[in-house]
Amino acid sequence: MKNFDIQQIADSGQIFRFNKTDDSHYELIAGDKRLVLDENGEPDLSDPFWWHYFDMDTDYGKFIESVPPSDKFLSAAVRCAGGIRILNQDPWEMLISFIVSQRKSIPAIKTSIEKLCERYGSRMDGYYAFPTPDELAKADMDGLKACSLGYRAEYIYECAGRTAAGEYDPWGWQVLNDDDLREKLMSIKGVGIKVANCTMLFGYHRTGAFPVDVWIKRIEDEYYDGAFPVDRYPGYAGIIQQYMFYYGRGVAKAGSSKIDRF
DNA sequence: TACCAGGTGACAG
DNA sequence: CTGTCACCTGGT
Question: To pair with A210 at 20 to 30 A between CA atoms, which of A24, A157, A241, A249?
Answer without folding.
Answer: A157
